[in-house]
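Researcher: Please translate sequence to structure tokens.
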Amino acid sequence: MRRRESLLLLSGIAVAWPLLAHAAESLAPRLVGVLMGFDNDEPSRALVGEFRGALAKAGWKEGGNLRIELRWGGGDVDRIGAAARELVALRPDAILAQTTPVATALAHETHAIPIVFVTVSDPIGSGLAASLAHPGGNITGFTFVESTMGSKWVELLKAIAPRTERLELLFNPATAPPLKFYLPSVEAAASSFSIKTSTAPVHASGEIEGAIAALARTPGGGLIVMPDAFTAANRDMIIALAARYSMPALYGNNFAKSGGLIAYGPDFAETFRQGAGYVDRILKGANPGELPIQLPTKFELAINLKTADALGLTIPPNVLAVAEEVIE
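Model: Translation complete:
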């Protein structure tokens, strides 16, 4: 009798063990990777904080049912590539990817782990997705700007610095979105104001001053600092050089708080909250390939009046009236 009871007990354990193992697995915290293209500075940490906060509101608690592995690319393609390989090796349940170089690096490393991108300009042209409505594969997310954004940059800079006759686009080809995405709208708007345009590709921080100094040699120059992980990593240097050479500059990333003259682009904080929403849905079973890529819906204009005053510029009342943020 005891032998029979023992066999029944062992049989019951054998049946229950897979169920217990599954239950233990389901109680394990979900792992989410975050790879930032920007540097580890206060503005970027604030964006990660928005992502964390949105996940917490959705019921994901770090130290409980969620673990986050965070890496920083610092606007450097080699660092980004190494961080992408490191995160993929951890086999997370999902990865948040900030900037085009980061999303591209992760796409090269995995076709299985769900990736949600933010601050990516041209996901179709970059080969990250088949279409906006049906991205397919393991990648989806939220675009940074629309292709017509370039015309708005030109209009704003001309309104604030009406003597602008020449316009230069500062960017790093290794980390910036494809320039062809913005250039047609930039050139069309510049032509309407009789402004000549040129590009200033820089590959290292040591090349930035030369580009700005060359533009400043003759009057009438204006600078558009393209949205780019590299320019974000060199934010303070670019702002200081623009001030030194008395160069009116518009920034695709919000550098106004750091002393940049004017910035216009989507609300970064909102895109990180939206990214958290997609990660939440994926952790709950959604297929990333069936989640549509979304265009930005909220844009912010920020103006630094102190910088404008130092450059001898007067901000038109109609521009001030539509600014979400005015820094005095």
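Researcher: Any highlights?
Model: The two ends are 88 Å apart (CA to CA).
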